[in-house]
Amino acid sequence: MSTYVPPTTTAAATTTTTAASTGEGRSVDYTCGDCNAAVSLKRGEPIRCRSCGHRVLYKQRTNRMVQFEAR
Amino acid sequence: MPPRPKKTGPTEIGDGAAKPARKKKEHPAPAAKDDFSNLLEPFYYGKSLTDPINTATDKWNLLPAFLKVKGLVKQHIDSFNHFVDVELKKIVEANRVVHSDADDKFFLRYTDIRVLKPNRIDEDIKDMKYKESNITPNECRLRDLTYAAPIVVDIEYRRGNKMVRRKDIKIGRLPIMLRSNKCVLHGRANRDMGLLNECEIDPGGYFVVRGQEKVILVQEQLSKNRVIVESAKGIMQASVTSSTHERKSKTYVILKKGRLYLRHNILNEEIPIVFILKAMGIQSDHEIILLVAGEDTVYQDQFAPNFEACTRENVYTQQQALDYIGSKIKMTRKPSGYQKRNYQHEAIECLSTIVITHVPVFGMNFRPKALYVAFMARRVLMAMHDPTLVDDRDYVGNKRLELAGQMLSILFEDHFKRFNHEFKVNIDKVLKKPNRASEFDAYDHMHMHGNHLTMGIERALSTGNWNLKRFKMERAGVTHLLSRLSYISAIGMMTRISSQFEKTRKVSGPRALQPSQFGMLCPSDTPEGEACGLVKNLALMTHITTEDEEDPVRKLVFILGAEDIVSASGYEIHGVGAYVVFVNGTPIAVTRTPKKFLTDFRRFRRIGRMSEFVSIYINHHHNGVHIATDEGRICRPLIIVERGRTKVTARYLKALRKGTMNFDDFLTRGLVEYVDVNEENDSNIAVYEKDINEHTTHLEIEPFTILGAVAGLIPYPHHNQSPRNTYQCAMGKQAIGSIAYNQFTRIDTLLYLMVYPQKPLVSTRTIELIKYDKLPAGQNATVAVMSYSGYDIEDALVLNKASVDRGFGRCQVFKKIAVQLKNYANGASDMINASARDPKNPNHLKIGGDGIVEVGMELAKDDVYLLKSTPANTSVSSFSGGANAYGGSGEWRDSHSTYKLPDPSYVDKIMVAENDNQTRIIKIQMRQTRRPELGDKFSSRHGQKGVVGIISPQADMPFSDDGVTPDIIMNPHGFPSRMTVGKMMELLSGKAGVLDGSQQYGTAFGGSKVEDMATILLSKGFSYSGKDYLTSGITGEALPSYVFFGPIYYQKLKHMVQDKLHSRARGPRATLTRQPTEGRSRDGGLRLGEMERDCLIAYGASQLLLERLMVSSDAHEVDVCERCGQMGYQGWCQGCKTGEGVSKITMPYAAKLLLQELASMNVKVKLGLGEEFPSG
Fold first, then answer.
1. What is the CATH number of the domain that holds B1134?
2. Strand extents, DSSP E, B32-118
3. According to the UniProt entry, which residue ranges have a biased composition of type Low complexity (chain A) (predicted)?
4. Same domain for B960 and B1013?
5. Residues of chain B numbered 938-967 and touching chain A (CB < 8 Å)
6. Do A13 and B896 touch (CB under 8 A)?
7. CA distance A6 to chain B (A)
8. Is residue B176 part of a domain?
C-alpha cells in the first residue's frame, strides 16, 4: 500500500505568527526529580534544580479541579 | 473462600518428602552486610535454620546459592566484565604501537587501557579522581542519555628527542552494562536501589543507549577452531573455521573420488593433501602414511592412492611442493613491477599464516600444523570407513554462544584499529612537512577522533547493526529493545538465544529438540511458527563460559605425564592404546593412560588449581582426550559423586544454610563442579540420590532446573501436554502485572500495569528464585468449571460483574509522548509558545501557563496538549541578520500537538529535562485505567487462553454453600482435548492452600501431592475431588451436578478490545490509489479480501462485487474515446482531436493508474466500449 498522508489537520498548523511572547516574565513551578525542591523556571532558563543541580524536573499537579468517574 | 474453623497440624509440602510446616524465619540473619534483605532471600523459603536436613531433598538449597553468583542473566554480566577487564587490554596489547611512515623515529605506545566509572558527558574525567559522578541509569533513561563511561589510555611517545609519558587520556566512551562491575549499581546493597531509583529485582545485563534499554541477545554459532566432519552432497569433508584476532578463515579437507584434497579460499584449486604435508616438511611418504593412517592397514590402503599425485605432478620434495602450492595461490595484489613471484615464499607465507591460522607456526616449525592437517585427513578417512563417525552439527557440544562481551570486543577492536589508523594518517600529514612551527606533539592530535569511537559503538548498540569490514561481518538485529511488558518478558529476553540459521530453510534438524540440550536449554520455551526451535532459552542453572588461559592448561597436560606430540611419530600417535590430548581442538600431546590422565586432570580442577570452567572428556571414537578452555560453552553445575556417595552431605548443606559457605566454597572444596555439554555426555548422572550406583559420577542438583525461567512459572508442568507449556511460555510474556519496583519513576513509551496484582497461590521454586512472587502478573481467580449460558463456548470466559467492580483484572495503561525542542543549525530552536493559548478555543482549555497541558487533566480527542512553535527559517545560509537568542528571523510557525486517540486519558506526569546536546525534552505520561470488558483476553498458566464472553451480574452466578460465587466460569470443554492436568492440580492445591492457609507448590517433578491436597480438603469439610455443590443464581435450584470449583491463577494479557476496536463508514483515502487507507491507526477501511471476493464471484453477486470493489472504494469517472480506446478529458480525445464518441465511464482509480503507468512504460492499453444495456 502506498504511504498514507494525513489530511491537513488544522489551519493553525500553517499560520505564521511573529514571536508574540507576551508572557515573557511569567515563571512556572516545577519539582526537582532528585531533591523534591520547588524550582520556578522562566522561559529560556536552563533546566536545572537550583539547590542540587539535578536536570530532571517534573511539572507540578494542577490546582484546577479534576473530576473522575469512578467505575 | 472463608477458612473453616477446623485446624489441622502440619501439612505436607515440598518436593516429595514430608517436611514440617513452613515458618517464617525466626533467627536473625547470620553475619552479613544486609540483614533485612537476607530475611527475604529465597534461601530461607520453606525452611527455618533449625529444621533437620536431608540431603536427598535439601540439595536444592544449592540452587539459590548458585543463582547468587551465576546463572539467569549473570552470564551477560560476566561476559561484559571479562571484556572490560581482560579482553580490552588484550586488544590494546595487540595494537600497541603507532608508527609513522614519514618519520621512522616516531612512535606512540599504549601502555594501559582502563574503563572508568560512568559519568555524564559534560563532566571532566580529571574531577572523577576526587569525586565520583552521581549519575544513575534511571537519569539516563529519563534524559535520553547513554549510560557510558570514559575509556582512558596511558601512552608513551616520542616528542622531539624526548620520550613523553602521559596518563589518563580519554579516547572515547563505552556504554556500560547495568550491574556489571563498572556500573554504579555494582556492590550496592538492595536497600540503596530505591535511592538510585532502580529496582532491586531488576537483573541488569542490558545497556541504556540514548535513553533506551538495549539487550545484546545471545547468539548461537557453530564452534570455532574445531574440526567438523560432515558429508555434504555425498562428499565427505572435514572443515575447520579458524578464528584469531588477525584473521578468520575456513579450511576444508575433502574427499573426492577417493583422494584427499585441501581446500581454502586463498587457493585457486584443491591441493592434494600429500603436497600440503610435504610442503610442511613431512617429506617421506612413509612418515605421511603413518601420521594419517597409523598402522591400520585398512586406512593405509585407503590413503595410499593419494601418493599417485606425486608422480603425476612430479612433486617429491618440500621445495617442489612449495612451488606447486605457490603457483596455485590467488593473486591478491597486483604484481609490483617486474618482480617475478617467488612461489616458495608465498607458499610458506600462506601455509604459516592463512591456512588453519589458529595453529601458530613459530620459527618455521610446521610440525604442529602438519599434525593438524593429518588429523583432519584421518577423520575423513574414518568417517568414510564408518559413516556413523560423521559429526552432528546440531549437537549442543559443537556450538558456542556469543555474548555481549564478545560482540562488543570485535566491535571495539574494529573501531580501535580505525582510530589508530586515522591517528597515524594525521601524524603522517604533519610529520611530512619539512619544517614545523612548533615541536610536534602527538598528544594534540589524539583528541581529534575521540568521537568516532564513542559514536561508532553507540550507533551499533542503538541500531543493532554490526558492520565490520575486517571480518566481512554484516549482522543486523544484534541488539533488541528490552521488552518491559512484564517482569517475565524482560527476564525471558535476557535468557533468549537466537540462532544464525536462516529461518526459511526447510530442515528440521536445527529446530528439533536435541537430547544434548538436557539441562542446558529449556525444552518448553520456544516461539511458535517461523522461529520455532531456532530461538531457544537458557535453562535455570546454566552458565556460559568466558575464555580461560590456555598456557597453564598446556603445562599441566605435560606435568600429568603426557608426551609432546611434536616429537612423536605416527607409530606412537596412532598405536594401540594411545590417546591424543587435544587442547581446544589442537593436538598437543599423547598419553597411553587416558583414564588416569582424565581423573588426574579432573582432580586438579576440583581442588581449584585451574579455572572451574575448563572441561575435559574422552572421545573413544577418535581415541582423543579433549580439553576445552574456550569461551561460549554452555555448562551447568552438578554434584560430584565418588564411590557411590555424593560429596554434598548434610554437614555442608547446614553450613550453606548458616551462611558460612557459599556456592564458590562448594566449588573449591570439590563438592560441586561445572560440566559442559561434552563432559556431561561423558558422565553418568543420577537424577535422584536413590539412583546412584557404582558407575555414577554426578548427581543432579535439582531436576526442575532443566526448565528455564519462563517455563518455571507453570505449576505442575510435568502433568501437562508439552505444547501447552510452550504456549504458556509465549503468553507469560504478554501478561500484565508489575514491571519493576521503579515502574512509576521510569517513563516508558508503553506500560501496562495491573492495579491489584497477587502472588500465585500455587507457587513453584522457580517463581521464588526469580522473585516473580514480588513482581507478579496475575490474580488468583475463583474458577467454576461448568457450562453457563451460551456465552462461554469456544474458550470464552464468564466474568463475575461484582468481581470486576471490586478490581479483578483492572489495569492501567501508560503512554508516553516525547517532544524534543530541536536546535537548528542557524541558532534557532523550537520553543513552547505559551502566549499562543487561545482562551476562546475549547481545545486549549487544558493548557497551563507554560504552554503545556496541566498535570491531572483529562485529555479527550482533539484536545491540544502542547503549544509548540518552530522557527519558520531554519537554514544557515539565508540572510537572517542578527540572530537573537532564539535565532531565526523572528518568524514562527505553530505546530501544536493534539491528542488523537478516541479514548480519553489523564495526564499523569510531565517531565522536562535536557539531553546531551542541550536539547530540551518534554515527556508527557498519560494514564488510562481499564476494567475488563467483553473481548479482553485472559489466560491461566497452562496455555489456556480465552476472551471474556459475558460479564454476568453476581446475582446470576452460581454460589456454593458458603455463599462463594466464582470470579470466572470456565467451560469444561477446555480440558479433554488439551490435557492440561496441571491446571486441575493447580486448582486442587490452590483450594487446599486457601483453606489451610498454607502456600502450596507446583514445582516441576515435585510439588504438593494430589493425595495430600485431598486430605486437606477432606479435613476442611470439602470433597476430596475439589468438586462443590452449587446452587444456580438464576433459578435458585441446585445445579444437577457437582462443580469443580477453586482458585486458579489467571493472567490478563495485553490484547485488549479497546486497542483493537475499529469501524469506519467513510474516512481518509490514500493519495496514490485513492483507495481507503489501511489499519486502525489511520482510520482505515475494512478490506474485502481475495477470498471474500471469490465468494461473491462464486455466488454470482456481480452488483455487490462492483459496489464493494469499485463504488465504495475508488470509483473514478474517465472519458474514453471509442475510436482509439484511449483516455481523454472533458469530453475531448487528444489523440483523435475530436469530441465525437467520447463517453464517460466509471472505473477504479487504481485501474486508471495502471493504464497510465503502463503507458509511461510504452505499453499501450486499449479500452473497448460496449453497451451497458444491450438492446438485443
1. 3.90.1800.10
2. 97-99, 107-115
3. 8-20
4. yes
5. none
6. yes
7. 8
8. yes
Nearest to A2 among B895, B914, B1072 (CB): B1072
* Least CB–CB distance from A55: residue in B848, B852, B914: B914
Residue B311 confidence (pLDDT) = 86
Does B350 lie in the same domain as B309?
yes
B893 touching A (Cβ < 8 Å): yes
Residues B333, B245 share a domain:
yes
Are B411 and B460 a contacting pair, CB within 8 Å?
Answer: yes
The pLDDT of residue B18 is: 40
Query: Does B949 lie in the same domain as B1090?
Result: no
Q: What is the pTM of this model?
A: 0.87
B101 is catalytic: no
Residues of B in contact with A5 (CB under 8 A): 1070-1071
CB contact under 8 Å between B891 and A47, yes or no, is no
pLDDT at A21 over 70: no
Mutate one of B801, B811, B840, B854 to test the A interface: name it (highest A CB count within 10 A): B854
The answer on B1092 and B1153 residing in a single domain is no
Residues 6+ apart with CB under 8 A from B575: B294, B295
Helix (H, G, I), strand (E, B) or coil at B156: strand
Q: Taking CB atoms and an 8 Å cutoff, what residues of chain B touch A30?
A: 912
Residues 6+ apart with CB under 8 A from A23: A43, B834, B835, B849
- Give a yes or no: residue B517 inside a domain: no
What is the per-residue pLDDT across B105-139, written as a single tens digit (0 to 9) for each?
A: 888 899 999 999 998 888 877 766 667 788 999 99
In whole angstroms, what is the distance from residue B836 CA to residue B895 CA? 11
Question: B86 and B157: one domain?
Answer: yes
User: Residue B869 is part of a domain; what is its CATH number?
Assistant: 2.40.50.150
Chain A residues inside the 8 Å CB shell of B909: 58-59
Q: Which of residues 36-65 of A touch B (CB under 8 A)?
A: 43-44, 46-48, 55-62, 64
Q: What pLDDT digit, counting tens, does each position of A26-67 carry?
A: 678 899 988 888 888 877 788 888 888 888 999 999 888 888
Conformation bin of residue B765: beta by default, left when phi > 0, alpha when psi is -120 to 50: alpha
- Its CATH architecture, for the domain A27-60, is Single Sheet (2.20)
Supply the angle between the helices B1010-1019 and B981-996 in degrees, to the nearest 10.
Answer: 40
Asked if residues B1049 and B941 have their Cβ atoms less than 8 Å apart, the reply is yes
- Which conformational region is residue B170 in: left (phi greater than 0), alpha (psi within -120 to 50 degrees), or beta? beta
- Look up the CATH number of the domain holding residue B448: 3.90.1100.10
Domain housing B344: 227-357
* CB count in 10 Å sphere of residue B576: 9
Residues of chain A contacting B139 with CB distance shorter than 8 Å: 55-56
- Banded pLDDT at B1038 (limits 50, 70, 90): very high
The pLDDT-based confidence of B890 (bands split at 50, 70, 90) is low
Does residue B803 belong to any structural domain of this protein? Answer: yes
- Chain A to chain B Cβ contacts (< 8 Å): 122
Supply the ipTM of this predicted assembly: 0.80
What residue type is A18 in one-letter code? T
Question: Catalytic: which of B154, B428, B795, B1083?
Answer: B795
Residues of B in contact with A56 (CB under 8 A): 139, 142-143, 911-913
Residue A14 is predicted with a pLDDT of: 43
Q: Do A47 and B920 touch (CB under 8 A)?
A: yes
Question: Could you report the per-residue pLDDT of B934-985, keeping only the tens digit for each?
Answer: 999 999 999 999 999 999 999 999 999 999 999 999 999 999 999 999 999 9
Residue of B746, B821, B835 to mutate for A, most A C-beta atoms under 10 A:
B835
How many separate domains does chain B show? 6
For residue B361, how many other CB atoms are within 10 A of its CB? Answer: 17
> Could you tell me if B991 and B951 lie in one domain?
yes
Q: Contact B988/B1017 with Cβ under 8 angstroms?
A: yes
Nearest CA in chain A to B134: A54
Mean of pLDDT over chain B: 87
Q: Is the pLDDT of residue B316 over 80?
A: yes
- Over range B462-470, report the average pLDDT: 86
